[in-house]
Amino acid sequence: MKGMVKESQRPRKRWVAGIDFRTTLAGYAFMTPALLVIILFTLAPIAYAFVMMFQKIDMLTMHRTYVGFENFQKLFTDPKFWAAFRNTWQYVLVVVPTQTIIAMILAALINNKIKLSRVFLSIMFLPTLTSSSAMTLIFMWLFNNNGLVVNFLEDLTGQRIQFLTNPDLALSVIMMMNIFSTVPHFMIVFLSGLQDIPDSLYEAAAIDGANKVRQFLHITVPQLMPVTFYVVTMGLIGCFQIFDQAYIISNGSGGPQNSTLTFTLFIYQLAFNSNDMGRATALAFTLGLLIFTVTLIVNRLMKADKING
Amino acid sequence: MLMKKRKNMMRSFIYIFLTAYSLMTLFPFLWSLMTSFKTTREITSTMTFFPQEWSFGGYEIIFDSQFPIWVKNSLVIAMIVTFLNLLFNTLAGYALARIPFKGRNFLFNALLILIMIPSQVTMIPLYIVIARMGLVNTHMALIVTSMINITYIFMMRQFFMHFPREVEEAAAIDGLSRFGTFFRIVLPNMKASIATQCVFVFMAVWNEFMRPLLFISSTEKYMLTQGLNFLSKQYMNATKWDVIMAGAILSIIPILLLYILLNKYFIRSSEQQSGIK
Q1: Strand A63-66 relative to strand A55-58: parallel, antiparallel, unpaired?
Q2: Which residue among B52, B172, B238, B243 sits deepest, i.e. has the most Cβ atoms within 10 Å of its Cβ?
């Protein structure tokens, strides 16, 4: 706002509105590429989505017929929808808290003026750098039925536990993988948040005789609340959208027995295997609504928590 | 004395924990690296960490496949997209911070809302838009849909909010135009922001899986992530994990190099990103 006043005091002022025409022109000239991309590839698809979810679309002839809420009706009576619903929720409820807690603890540990902290950070960052496809292949190699983990567990327990072909455990491999690769990113976010906490708070607590664990629980955790909110929100959005890993592990099928079928994978299947773009868009809209609602609720809860704390 | 002893114990616990976590992180990568140098026969029979017989068979198969073409595709497109992002995000960020044009606040708020819309939600209609433009199965589809990024527009806006205005005003008095000021005075001062964007945009394109999967269908146009998945389907049933791991390891190397080269910007920018909130 400060800039605004300054600019309008310039002698070139010609427009009644207070901002001269050339400035506005320059502004839009600078914004043109960004605006074009946003209009074509974000706004147009969103507008399109609102129409498509009420239509049945034939991809070959591009013929569309209005079907009202039929796409939604078909979705909600589809057992695959509920499988995806269950899987995605399970996934979110396990991954989001786990990765947030691990990231926060790691950040708090590294923040203790550790020698070689750069070395630790660099090594830990490796999974975040790796593409989801390479990471998934590495995990598939570790967890496949003849892989290291299965053999190791057999030596340890005498039982041969299969992961990738077991409907009860396939999703847990994806969960582990996601935690493994997002923890380092969030750890760094927490680390920057930690640096904003004044040392005096810890010094006062130390004088009061609070040990490190108590300091962590009573100073670090509440002080990090805004950062935690950011991390939880980003984690939620990321987890609800999980696709790559589920697609690669199940070869696009969501198997075994729909146990790795996530919302986004189901959207993909509807659109490109069943060629039902209308229903796929209806599902995407449902997912968007779900993400929005959950983020809003978490936002409220954490804000309330902050006031009480 | 007791305090000091306790403190030392605490510190050793921290070091042990961090070392353990680092080793746990490193292990899957080392295990895959070792696998890539084993023979297929060894992979199916034994489970030693180091290869009993070092073999480059996996890498030979990889280089005889279309892998080099996919690397080239990913490399070229990632570089083009990175360049365009640098240019366009910076221009937009500059305008939002410095040029008080009509509708600026509205645009800024609109962008704040748009950044929250998950890309997966719009992917099907986006596919139709791309199909309508006749861009399916072209690299152009990948470039045009990712040549700007709202997150970095905001980052650049932050940068320009903090950049001393007096420097620019002096240039304006000396008769430089807005574009002249921008390219001659401001641009040379943004090394850190440029490095940050380079790293993150390049990495995003290099690691992206879903968009190539949607848009690209012929194998010679595949991006590396897609190609890797394609290869794995080909060799997994034959348990040729040495080939698959060779591909996976090779695909990580360019990002790793970029990371080592620009390490200091990586960490710093992750911190900055959280500062946007």
Answers
A1: antiparallel
A2: B243
- Residues of chain A contacting residue B229, judged by C-beta atoms under 8 Å apart: 133, 137, 248
The answer to whether B141 and B130 are in contact (CB under 8 A) is yes
List, as ranges, residues 16-75 from A with C-beta within 8 Å of B: 17, 19, 23-28, 30-31, 33-35, 37-38, 40-46, 48-49, 52
Place of tokens 């989001």: A96
Asked if residue B164 has a cis previous peptide bond (ω within 30° of 0), the answer is: no
Omega prior to B100 cis, within 30 of 0: no
Query: Residue A233 corresponds to which tokens in the numbers above?
Result: 């929100």
Over the stretch A12-47, which tens digit does the pLDDT of each residue have? Answer: 444 445 568 888 998 999 999 999 999 999 999 999
- Give the start-end residues of each E strand in A59-190: 63-66
d(CA A126, CA A147): 22
Q: Phi-psi category of A19—alpha, beta or left, where left has phi over 0 and alpha has psi -120 to 50?
A: beta
Query: pLDDT for B82-135, tens place per residue?
Result: 999 999 999 999 899 988 998 999 999 999 888 888 888 889 999 999 999 999
Residue A123 vs residues A118, A132, B12, B37: alpha-carbon distances, Å: 9, 18, 19, 22
Among the partner-chain residues A26, A38, A243, the one whose CB lies closest to the CB of B120 is: A243
Residues 117-146 of B with CB under 8 A from A: 117-129, 144-145
d(CA B157, CA A106): 31
Can you tell me the ipTM of this complex? 0.89
Q: CA B211, B217, B222 angle in degrees (round to 5)?
A: 70
